[in-house]
Amino acid sequence: MLDTVTTPHADFLGMRFCLLPQAEVIGRVIEAGAPYRYVVTPNAYHVVAAHDEPARLLPLYRGAWLSLCDSRIVRALAWFEGRALPLVTGSDLVPALFGALNARNPSQQPKRVLVVGPPADIAAKLRVAYPNAICEVIPAPSGLARDAELRLAVARSCLERQWDILLLCVGCPAQELIAQQLAELGRSSGVALCVGASIDFITGAQIRAPRWLQKFSLEWAYRLAHEPRRLWRRYLVESPKILRIFIASRSPRGR
């Protein structure tokens, strides 16, 4: 599944991070056909989760076709190591991808997009915003992260449908597990992107932080202020553990 020659990555914090800019990522996703591949968008929380369960989760991220840096914090830590990681967040990637699909020449082969996660009525909003994109939505049940049978049912539902691009918007690690499961079930073509809540931002279900907050790496604080009960543990307890992982990864002299 990996194509390390044409999709350059750098190893950092035990993960692989793609070195391609967003525009090139979109181009490769749109033009990808067979074999089936999947894309992950690890942020600080994902890195911590992968290190907490290395046997289960690290292979999901390291086995991805593209592993995109979705965290300004991760990018900043990489900078301290002298590494330049392009920032390609799911929240930016998904609307740019839809925009590119919507702008394709009608003479080109149309690409079918399947979105898994949001309510079914989101499909109508996507068709209004991107009338030239062919889009279908499958709502996903809650509890996917803890229920292997539910994840298998979602994967089989995806397997039965026709799509070129699959957007898995069901959170970590459920979306990554489903992406890998599709390969195990024999999916032979298409690209699955694990992009979390990104679809909520382009449909208005959630509002992104102002650009100036994003620029200062404070988008997490904006989201925490709007959803404290759901996100406080992720942002205040789990994600900061990435600093411990970063320090442990450095040489004694570097520390």
Order of helices and strands: EEHEHHEHHEHEHEHEHHHHH
Helix content: 40-55%
Low-confidence stretches: none
* Helix-strand makeup class: alpha/beta
Output mean pLDDT.
Answer: 86
Please give the order of strands in the largest beta sheet. Answer: 4-3-8-7-5-6
Largest sheet: 6 strands, parallel
Please compute the radius of gyration using only Cα atoms. Answer: 18 Å
Shape: globular
Distance between the termini: 36 Å
Put simply, the count of helices is 13
**Number of individual domains:** 2
Give me the count of strands. Answer: 8
Task: Report strand %.
Answer: 5-15%
Could you describe the 3D structure shown?
With 255 residues, the protein is α/β, with parallel strands linked by helices. The chain folds into 2 domains: 9-203, no CATH class; 211-249, no CATH class. The protein has 13 helices and 8 strands. The protein has helices at 22-31, 44-52, 54-62, 72-80, 90-102, 122-129, 148-160, 174-184, 198-203, 211-215, 219-226, 228-238, 242-249; strands at residues 9-12, 15-18, 37-40, 66-67, 112-117, 134-139, 165-168, 191-194. The strands form 2 sheets. It has a 6-stranded parallel sheet with strand order 4-3-8-7-5-6, sandwiched between helices. A two-stranded antiparallel sheet has the order 1-2. It is globular. The N and C termini lie far apart (36 Å).
